[in-house]
């Protein structure tokens, strides 16, 4: 009886999981399929899933019309740069919050998290003016700074959660063994927390790669990443669904591949500390 | 050299005073055990000596030098933690080498010191393994090895055997005692296990509620406890306390009798009672006897004790083996 119940519940959960996953994945699949259609087929009143004439013309058009690799390189620099700079700040911050706690540490962490609840548009004007005055508009450096600041609370929180799992006695032992704070962090803490640091880095690369609000506002031509490249296909000339889809596919495929290969690491990183 | 002197040392965590003003002199080469129940402040004091906790007031002197505010690494002490605190990503060799590398010791000297420590601690075959590939006892040996190579002026052990199973604990207890004899270095050892304290210590300091109740050799503490707390804490099974009215002062006096100091008779004696559960250990038996006043006492008897559950017995304390405590729990008379 219980075996029968188990089988039934497994079946229900499996169907539910596939349904939800399909719903989440469908827009990506649809984008990929549309990218291989002609423009007329893409806006056809009776959409087809696979039965259409497959073509690569949209990809060739997109590559010839826009400097894809420049945008791609900008995305790489901005997402990797902001994640690495963020790590440089977040590691010592999380170390002190995890191992040298004060009464205010929890409040500080909550305050940092609360900044993520602020709608970005709320600080749009001051940031834009600051960027203009400091000559950071349309520069990769400017975007690295913004992305670092935006994602820093998440990085600190993730690393803090990781570091809290590391027994403080190990760090105390290193202190007894004569390690300075720097040696304690580099020789003991970082190697032990490497999986956590890797998943933090990975998640922030993905978040920065996908960030569109600030990249569209603060860049024009020189520093615009792939998100701006996609947006350029919804232009005053009209919406070119097939080309837009091809551009989207070219923008998301690199990060999709990275996410696919690192999903185990990411899931572990995000669920770390949830269960002791 | 490894003498440590604590002068009026205190520790507060926010408004909570966990170590009350405390003085203690630890002699060079001595094996002193801090023993007491959980939360009594023994580990906190050890961490203060190590420099891992700040001292709120008072002074800590190491070899006559004030070390109250000296960083942990500069105190010349080595510490072995309850959780071993090994570096999980390093091999045994690198774990042991870590403090030497920090001290900028030459590679050749590091190698010779590692080889020497590994030989002493039977770790030679495991030098290239990671801590995760070792048993609990081996991990604790690595932690001790990491401490030995520094040639510290004193070793600090914070409940190092708590994570080991009972038989391994006995072995490691002996190994640490032998290590102390061979190195002749000061050792401060924290435990809540009074058996460890009795078997290993030159002197024991019994802690309770942030104060030291008594310091002395194991036998001094066993035979001449200064109060009921020490009397009850030292000895296994613990001392029995029987409340008796004091006709002179109209107060209740507590009589303390150790389980091995009762004489059992089925005819006559000071206290009448009924035998409850009997624990047969082979070489000896422990009888749990409920006296007529409702107190249950533990009595040590021979291994082949013929008594059975429900038997009526009379108990009498051996002459000069009764400890008497006043209403505040202080010893007022020790008849031995």
Q: Please, could you describe this protein's structure?
A:
The complex is a heterodimer of chains A (276) and B (336). Chain A has 14 helices and 2 strands. Chain A has 276 residues and is mainly α. Chain A has a two-stranded antiparallel sheet with strand order 1-2. In chain A, helix 7 packs antiparallel against helix 10 (194-210), helix 8 (168-176) packs antiparallel against helix 9 and helix 10 crosses helix 14 (263-271). The longest helix of chain A is centred in the first third of the chain and has 33 residues, at 2-34. The relative contact order of chain A is 0.14. Chain B is α+β, with helices and mostly antiparallel strands. Chain B has a 6-stranded mixed beta sheet with strand order 6-7-8-3-9-10, sandwiched between helices. In chain B, a hairpin with a 4-residue loop joins strand 15 (284-291) and strand 16. At the A-B interface, helix 8 and helix 9 of A face strand 6 and helix 2 of B.
List the keywords.
heterodimer; A: 276 residues; mainly alpha; two-stranded antiparallel sheet; 14 helices; globular; B: 336 residues; alpha+beta; six-stranded mixed β-sheet; five-stranded antiparallel β-sheet; 8 helices; 25% helix; 35% strand
Please outline the major beta sheet of chain B.
6 strands, mixed
Largest protein-protein interface = A-B, 17 and 22 residues
Order of helices and strands of chain A: HHHHHHHHHHHHEEHH
Work out the strand percent of chain A: under 5%
């Amino acid at each position: 009886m219980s075996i029968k119940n188990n089988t039934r519940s497994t079946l229900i959960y499996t169907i539910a999981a596939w349904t939800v996953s399909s719903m989440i994945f469908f827009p990506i699949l649809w984008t990929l399929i549309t990218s291989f259609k002609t423009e007329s087929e893409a806006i056809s009143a009776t959409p087809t899933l696979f039965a259409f004439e497959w073509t690569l013309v949209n990809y060739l058009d997109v590559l010839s019309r826009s400097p894809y690799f420049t945008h791609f390189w900008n995305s790489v620099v901005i997402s990797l740069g902001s994640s690495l700079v963020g790590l440089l700040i977040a590691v010592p911050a999380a170390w002190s919050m995890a191992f040298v706690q004060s009464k205010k540490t929890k409040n500080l962490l909550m305050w940092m998290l609360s900044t993520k609840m602020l709608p970005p548009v709320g600080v749009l004007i001051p940031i834009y003016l600051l960027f203009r005055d400091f000559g950071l508009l349309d520069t990769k450096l400017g975007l690295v700074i913004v992305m670092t600041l935006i994602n820093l609370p998440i990085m600190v929180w993730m690393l803090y959660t990781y570091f809290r799992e590391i027994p403080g006695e190990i760090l105390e032992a290193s202190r007894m063994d004569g390690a300075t704070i720097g040696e304690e962090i580099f020789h003991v803490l970082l190697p032990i927390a490497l999986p956590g640091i890797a998943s933090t880095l990975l998640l922030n690369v993905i978040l920065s790669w996908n960030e569109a609000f600030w990249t569209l506002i603060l860049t024009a031509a020189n520093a615009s990443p792939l998100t701006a490249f996609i947006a350029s296909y919804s232009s005053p000339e009209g919406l070119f669904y097939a080309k837009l889809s091809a551009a989207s596919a070219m923008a998301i495929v690199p990060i999709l591949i990275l996410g696919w290969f690192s999903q185990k690491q990411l899931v572990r990183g995000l669920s770390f500390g949830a269960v002791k | 050299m490894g003498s440590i002197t604590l002068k009026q040392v205190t520790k507060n965590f926010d408004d909570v005073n966990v170590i009350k003003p405390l003085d203690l002199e630890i002699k060079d080469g001595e094996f002193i055990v801090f023993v007491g129940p959980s939360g009594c402040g023994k580990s906190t004091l050890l961490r203060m000596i190590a420099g891992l906790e700040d001292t709120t007031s008072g002074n800590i002197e190491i070899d006559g030098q004030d070390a109250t505010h000296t960083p942990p690494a500069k105190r010349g002490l080595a510490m072995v933690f309850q959780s071993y605190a090994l570096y999980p990503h390093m091999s045994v060799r690198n774990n042991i080498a870590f403090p030497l590398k920090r001290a900028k010791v030459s590679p050749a000297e590091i190698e010779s010191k590692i080889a020497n420590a590994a030989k002493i601690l039977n770790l030679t075959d495991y030098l290239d393994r990671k801590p995760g590939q070792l048993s609990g006892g081996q991990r604790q040996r690595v932690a001790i090895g990491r401490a030995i190579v520094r040639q510290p002026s004193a070793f600090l052990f914070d409940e190092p055997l708590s994570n080991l199973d009972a038989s391994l604990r006995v072995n490691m207890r002996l190994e640490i005692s032998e290590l102390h004899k061979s190195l002749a270095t000061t050792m401060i050892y924290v435990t809540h296990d009074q058996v460890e304290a009795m078997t290993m210590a030159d002197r024991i300091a019994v802690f309770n509620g942030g104060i030291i109740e008594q310091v002395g050799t194991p036998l001094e503490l066993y035979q001449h406890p200064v109060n009921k707390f020490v009397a009850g804490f030292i000895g296994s099974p613990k001392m029995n306390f029987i409340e008796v009215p004091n006709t002179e002062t109209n107060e209740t006096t507590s009589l303390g009798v150790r389980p091995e100091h009762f004489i059992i008779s089925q005819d006559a004696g000071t206290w009448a009672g009924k035998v409850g559960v009997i624990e047969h250990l082979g070489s000896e038996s422990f009888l749990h006897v409920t006296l007529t006043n409702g107190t249950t006492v533990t009595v040590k008897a021979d291994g082949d004790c013929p008594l059975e559950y429900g038997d009526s017995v009379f108990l009498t304390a051996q002459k000069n083996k009764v400890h008497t405590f006043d209403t505040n729990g202080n010893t007022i008379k020790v008849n031995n």
